């Protein structure tokens, strides 16, 4: 908002249009440099003048033309300070609107987000949690910026691992145990399988044969497979309900079974397929990549060819303009290979298909490996976070009526925020105790700030969001209120930035800035006092309400609830 105003004002003086100028404007890191600044270094060569001189001359001209904004020049920067009282009330009232921050930059673009995608018969791991939360936040942020979004759960419900599971189940499993605890029992069978293969190599062959049978549609094997899928899904759905995440499509890898032959056929027609020790591959030497395996020696399909069929389907049936694959960075090579094969097939649209990678997450220092059975169970992590949240609530506000419900929102929110507050590419060691704390850079801190404002508004009994009152910007003249307003004014561009970088982190960071600014404002002086006049109280409460509104909105984009009391 401030950048737009600044761009309008400065543009005529530098011979650029406001939209050309906007990307060059900055929010300076230090308050002393004003509210918005323009580095003038890039103009220096063109105009054959020093940046200092250019900044100084523009400042003079701006100051001569109006009084709402004061311009100054320091060290090659043109700095603007906004003085308009009306601007303050404009920001506060805009930020109180329901869909404040929304834009239509994505209008007409359809985005498919491939996210979560856990593997059937394996635990829902922390990596899948990251994909679910980053994916869910991106879905919400893309929608808020006008994109049409379809989110897809590309369940890992096909592949050699089902051969292993079927063999293990037939040898060591029972229906009863599997129905009781599908994931834990599948995991036990899976681990047992790997232990046994150390001395019984032939088990691997049996598993391969079982998968070939599955791909050929053997009814008994298929029934068994369906049983595994159905049981696992029950457990996954429970996790999704808790995280409040939904999917437009639950099309796992098996969905593409009948769409693979045409891809293989096409690859062959294009002479891209090559035989290599019995297997079918596409060479990618010219891209500096190892070959992409398409079919195994026994003719069975693999992950990569299923992804090729998936990619085509998303273009042809879903009409995707952009596809985002929210998948851990350990799969970077896989996606480079898949995208390269698509390019070789002549599909230029593959340029709009992007891997959105993220780093590894450990919980309290523990890594996981499904094969060895070393697993951090997501539901246990969630339960523990909720327990801790409940403990804190019991200490702080034991009278709270719906404690359990609030603790669930706080515990789950703590985990989500603990993830999203980092650049997604970073590896994160997740410390539960820190994440659930109400102080520091945590989800509960944001929720608590929001709840505090709700309490303040209830106490004053002012229905500030009704729109009945007009905000008088002259009562928002303190430095701390201006910092709050400035931060609020950035929201729309923060959401657009998050889209550009595919980084929910931008929103998380912004919310922390906003909460900190608000708490500084709030701690700088009582709002509801006997000697303050009503217009002043209302203006300050309106600012608080606007902050609460944006906190709640931003949290909901990240997939976090904002209780009104906690
Ligand atoms: N199920 C896979 C895994 O857990 C992730 C799938 C990601 N999506 C895709 N289209 N390959 O590793």
Automatic annotation (TrEMBL):
It holds the Pfam family DALR_1. A motif ('HIGH' region) lies at residues 118-128. It is an enzyme of class 6 (ligase). Residues 4-82 form the Arginyl tRNA synthetase N-terminal domain. GO terms for biological process: arginyl-tRNA aminoacylation. Keywords: Aminoacyl-tRNA synthetase, ATP-binding, Cytoplasm, Ligase, Nucleotide-binding, Protein biosynthesis. It is found in: Cytoplasm. Its EC number is 6.1.1.19. It catalyses: tRNA(Arg) + L-arginine + ATP = L-arginyl-tRNA(Arg) + AMP + diphosphate. InterPro entries: Arg-tRNA-ligase (IPR001278), Arg-tRNA-synth_N (IPR005148), Arg-tRNA-synth_N_sf (IPR036695), ArgRS_core (IPR035684), DALR_anticod-bd (IPR008909), Rossmann-like_a/b/a_fold (IPR014729), tRNAsynth_Ia_anticodon-bd (IPR009080). It comes from the Bacteria. GO terms for cellular component: cytoplasm. Gene3D superfamilies: Arginyl tRNA synthetase N-terminal domain, HUPs, Isoleucyl-tRNA Synthetase, Domain 1. Residues 446-566 form the DALR anticodon binding domain. GO terms for molecular function: arginine-tRNA ligase activity; ATP binding. Belongs to the class-I aminoacyl-tRNA synthetase family. Monomer. PANTHER family: ARGININE--TRNA LIGASE, CYTOPLASMIC (PTHR11956:SF5), ARGINYL-TRNA SYNTHETASE (PTHR11956). HAMAP family: Arg_tRNA_synth. This is Arginine--tRNA ligase. It comes from Cohnella abietis. The lineage of its organism: Bacteria, Bacillati, Bacillota, Bacilli, Bacillales.
């Amino acid at each position: 908002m401030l950048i737009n105003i600044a761009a309008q004002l400065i543009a005529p003086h530098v011979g650029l249009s406001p939209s050309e100028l906007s990307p060059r404007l900055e929010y300076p890191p230090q308050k002393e440099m004003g509210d918005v600044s323009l580095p003038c270094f890039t103009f220096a060569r063109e105009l054959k003048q020093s940046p200092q001189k250019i900044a100084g001359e523009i400042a003079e001209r701006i100051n001569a033309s109006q009084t709402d904004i004061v311009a100054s020049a320091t060290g090659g920067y043109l700095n603007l300070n906004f003085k308009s009282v009306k601007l303050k009330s404009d920001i506060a009232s805009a930020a109180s609107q329901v869909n404040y921050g929304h834009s239509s930059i994505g209008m007409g673009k359809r985005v498919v987000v491939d996210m979560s995608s856990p593997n059937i018969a394996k635990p829902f791991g922390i990596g899948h949690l990251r994909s679910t939360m980053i994916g869910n936040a991106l879905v919400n942020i893309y929608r808020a910026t006008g994109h049409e979004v379809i989110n897809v759960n590309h369940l890992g419900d096909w592949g050699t691992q089902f051969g292993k599971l079927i063999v293990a189940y037939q040898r060591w499993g029972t229906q009863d145990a599997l129905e009781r605890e599908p994931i834990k029992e599948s995991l036990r069978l899976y681990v047992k399988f790997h232990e046994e293969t150390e001395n019984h190599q032939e088990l691997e062959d049996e598993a391969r044969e079982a998968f070939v049978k599955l791909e050929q549609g053997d009814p008994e094997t298929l029934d068994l497979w369906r049983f595994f899928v159905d049981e696992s899904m029950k457990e996954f759905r429970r996790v999704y309900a808790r995280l409040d995440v939904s999917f437009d499509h639950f099309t796992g890898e098996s969905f593409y079974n009948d769409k693979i032959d045409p891809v293989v056929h096409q690859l062959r027609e294009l002479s891209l397929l090559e035989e290599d020790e019995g297997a079918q591959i596409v060479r990618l030497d010219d891209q500096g990549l190892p070959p992409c395996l398409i079919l195994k020696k026994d003719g069975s399909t693999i992950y990569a060819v299923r992804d090729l069929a998936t990619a085509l389907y998303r273009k042809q049936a879903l009409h995707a303009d952009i596809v985002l694959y929210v998948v851990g960075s350990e799969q970077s090579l896989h996606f480079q290979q898949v995208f390269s094969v698509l390019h070789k097939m002549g599909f230029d649209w593959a340029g709009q298909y992007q891997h959105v990678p993220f780093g590894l997450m450990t919980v309290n220092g523990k890594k996981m490996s499904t094969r060895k059975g070393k697993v951090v169970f997501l539901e246990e992590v969630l339960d523990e976070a909720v327990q801790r949240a409940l403990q804190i609530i019991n200490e702080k506000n034991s009278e709270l009526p719906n404690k359990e419900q609030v603790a669930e929102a706080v515990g789950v929110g703590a985990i989500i925020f603990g993830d999203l507050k980092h650049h997604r590419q970073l590896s994160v060691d997740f410390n539960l105790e820190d994440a659930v704390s109400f102080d520091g850079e945590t989800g509960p801190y944001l929720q608590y700030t929001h709840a505090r404002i709700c309490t303040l508004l209830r106490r004053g009994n002012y229905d500030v969001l009704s729109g009945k009152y007009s905000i008088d910007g002259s009562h928002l003249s303190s430095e701390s209120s201006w910092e709050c307003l400035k931060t609020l004014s950035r929201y729309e561009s923060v959401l657009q930035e998050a889209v550009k970088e595919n980084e929910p982190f931008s929103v998380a960071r912004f919310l922390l800035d906003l909460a900190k600014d608000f708490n500084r404002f709030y701690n700088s002086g009582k709002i509801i006092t006997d000697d303050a006049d009503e217009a002043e109280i209302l203006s300050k409460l309106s600012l608080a309400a606007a902050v609460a509104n944006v906190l709640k909105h931003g949290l909901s984009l990240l997939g976090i609830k904002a209780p009104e009391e906690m």
